[in-house]
Design goal:
By secondary structure, the chain is mainly alpha-helical. The chain is built from twelve helices and two strands, in the order ααααββαααααααα. A hairpin with a 7-residue loop joins strand 1 and strand 2.
Length: 236
């Protein structure tokens, strides 16, 4: 088996193990030597497999010896999606305009879905956290990068109210993938304080509509908000 393909046997094996329930999140992978012997591949190929799994958000590796060393199974699906999106945005293979449209589809539909879901302590906790974030973002001395981080989390929280983990993961990935574009847009503005004030006003309208289960109003407010911000970078 060619060296650059040998590691795929471990990926296929791990997929089977996860599907069958033989291994689960939190378990450690067998050691490098054991895997190499089990599959008849080199230890270099095993290390390559672990690197790929790490990039996919499926393992976290710790060097050294002892009980904490080795590769432990985790599940962070948005990590791999975000990196892939960022790279393909950088190559211009994925136009920013299409990314914005994808966000609009995800967020507006999530707003409609969340309005129809029953109340629960989890929903109230999410809304409380969203409100807290907006209060923090009102601080005039808040650095722009922290504002953007809280802004991203605010949108992800509201999307999570739809109760769809795949949509929530995709939303987190899209936000992470476009952070560089957002920062470039803001750095080119001479009036960030005014822009952040406008964004906060829009955020408050969105949150109130979500709180009051006015799904259509929330969806429309989100559409206006997202379109307005990304329109700032367009030539006039």
């Amino acid at each position: 088996m060619p060296a650059h393909r040998a590691y795929t046997v471990i990926l296929a094996w791990l997929e089977d193990q996860l599907r069958s329930g033989a291994v689960k999140v939190g378990d450690k992978l067998p050691g490098e030597r054991q895997l190499a012997e089990q599959f008849g591949i080199s230890r270099a190929s095993v290390r390559e497999a672990v690197r790929v799994l790490d990039a996919m958000g499926l393992v976290r590796s710790a060097t050294g010896s002892g009980p904490t060393a080795g590769a432990v199974l985790i599940s962070e699906p948005s990590v791999a999606l975000a990196w892939a999106l960022r790279m393909h945005i950088a190559t211009r293979a994925l136009p920013i305009g299409d990314i914005v449209q994808a966000r609009l589809l995800l967020e507006t539909q999530s707003a409609l879905e969340s309005a129809a879901r029953p109340d629960s302590p989890d929903r109230q906790a999410v809304l409380g956290e969203a409100s807290r974030l907006l209060d923090e973002m009102d601080a005039p001395e808040l650095p722009a990068d922290q504002f953007h981080a809280s802004d991203a989390q605010f949108h992800i929280l509201l999307t999570s109210l739809a109760g769809n983990l795949v949509v929530e993961t995709m939303m987190a990935s899209l936000r992470e993938a476009t952070i560089g574009y957002v920062q470039e847009t803001v750095s080119g503005l001479d009036s960030w304080p005014e822009v952040s004030c406008t964004l906060q006003g829009q955020h408050r309208v969105i949150l109130q509509a979500v709180q009051e289960r006015r799904g259509q109003d929330a969806a429309e407010a989100l559409r206006e908000h997202i379109t307005w911000f990304f329109g700032l970078s367009e030539p006039h």
